[in-house]
Amino acid sequence: MKEELKLEALRRMSRIRRFEETAMDLIRKGQGIAGAVHICIGQEATIVGSCLALRPDDFMVGYHRSHGHPIAKGARLGPLMAELMGRRTGVCHGKGGSMHLADFKVGSLGETAIVGAGIPQAAGAAYSARIRGTDQVALAFFGDGAANIGSFHEGLNLASAWRLGAVFVCENNLYAMSTPLAQTMASESVASRAAAYQMPGVVVDGQDVVAVYETVKSAVDRARAGEGPTLIEARTYRYRDHAEYGKLDLGHRPVEELERWRTRDPIALLAASCDPVQVAAIDKEAAQEVADAVTFAKSSPMPGPEELFDDLWATPLEVTR
To answer: What is the C-alpha to C-alpha distance for residues 14 and 46, in angstroms, rounded to an integer?
Structure first.
């Protein structure tokens, strides 16, 4: 990975980290974000390395742990924060919230709380590229828990049968909510399942953004050349609990395990190979971008009652504007 690309990777990873730390703080203080947020702190290298391997016009589908995916794809922070706060200026006009972010401007087709739903969605996006005669690639992120959902098998099977330009990236953080993967999956590897669908299956160190980028770039090039899909399993770890509700701690992971993974913080690993002055400047820049995003969100209006049925296929009731 060239130096300028490493710095861009660090910039996007820092944006994600700062964005999510701020979202947690807002939740704790009761300042504008209702409900819970699902935090991907610790998994930034997998997300950013994958998205940097895509072109701006390629498609990306995330899942419920959703903030990092559009940020890594290049989405602006202001509309993302506004969506978390339910504001009209949000990427989904304040109607989606934390788990349902979508920004078509950067090819982010959206996230959903339905586990595994994005996998066939990415296959569909790849099929649409074929119909339209483009070489766009569709990449789906999902967690290890989704690898046991029917849509995982359906999506991979269809993508392989039709040789679609899709890449499937499993963010294997070892836990489906609070359940260890070892208790729910007979195989020791998600990637090994690729053999059943006649596609390559690759395991990569999800804390190493360079390794993730190179692995995903190879899969993206293969997909763009018409050689079909690839399944990638990135071994990573989330440093926070399943979701931030305020002060709830499920306490389901050994402290020693968490601390061991913290020694491989993906941002620290990348920063160690970069100029310290540039690292500090990037972190300061990311902090300011997030602060500006919060200001933008808090100053934005809430959607009005007259907008209730906007963006639906049909308006079931007459709405007076």
So the answer is: 13
CA distances from 84 to 21, 97, 177, 281 (A): 13, 5, 21, 27
Establish if 308 belongs to a structural domain: no
In this prediction, residues 118-130 reach a mean pLDDT of 98
Q: Is residue 32 part of a domain?
A: yes
Task: Provide the CATH number for the domain around residue 32.
Answer: 3.40.50.970
DSSP 3-state of 171: strand
Check: CB of residue 301 under 8 Å from CB of residue 88.
Answer: yes
> Per DSSP, what are the bridge partners of residue 180?
175
Percent of the chain with pLDDT over 70: 97
The percentage of the chain sitting over the pLDDT mark of 90, rounded to a whole number, equals 83
Domain count, the chain: 1
Which two tokens mark 164? 């679609």
β-sheet bridge partners, residue 205: 235
User: Is 80 exceeded by the pLDDT of residue 204?
Assistant: yes
Q: What is the mean pLDDT of residues 74-101?
A: 96
Q: Which domain, by its residues, includes 276? A: 3-300
74 assigned to some structural domain: yes
Beta carbons within 10 angstroms of residue 253's beta carbon = 16
Position 48 in a domain = yes
* pTM for the structure as a whole: 0.94
CA distance 142 to 171: 6
